[in-house]
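Case study 2.
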Amino acid sequence: MYVSFIIRSISQYVIVVIIISISGFIFIEPNIRFKKVIDKMSDDGIRKQLIRFEQGGIEREVYTSLYDKEAVIRYARSFIGTPHKMKGISKKGIDCSGLVMVVHEKSGISLPHSSQEQARYGKIIFDTDSLERGDLLFYYNSYNSLSFITHVGIYLGDHAFIHSSSKKGVIISKTTDAYWSGKYLFATRFSR
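Prediction:
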């Protein structure tokens, strides 16, 4: 028999999960990398959304034996100019999470077709100075949605990322653009 308690301290932005089992207490530490993501946000509403997101699970493992981030990037670049299409997954039309899902499938990584759910996979990278080619970048509130995380792209290095824009289709943008830097949350990384 297990009973779970979630203790939240909004003022300190700490989530601690305690599971009581027949054999005693199991203490699960909060994710320090994700705590840093929460701490860097100045908006209390965004912090609360991040806390709720974390409760759904983060840093899920991915099977990476075939993973080649340079092959992923090359394949993603072959989609440049493809028009945006919600729920699309082909060169006839593709959305941001569809692009990430399709290009990773070739390297043996199976991801859901949702930027919010894709953000649950891989190691959290909280510091933009630590970004590497192939990291997935996640953004919030890029369009009206019930999901908190609404956009994803693949980091190319030199402050550039490839993604499917709702207005321009698959393009390369700068992470330093005011629009994207203002909506940036965190990145994730798949490592071999």
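The helical segments are 32-39, 44-55, 69-77, 96-105, 115-118, 178-183.
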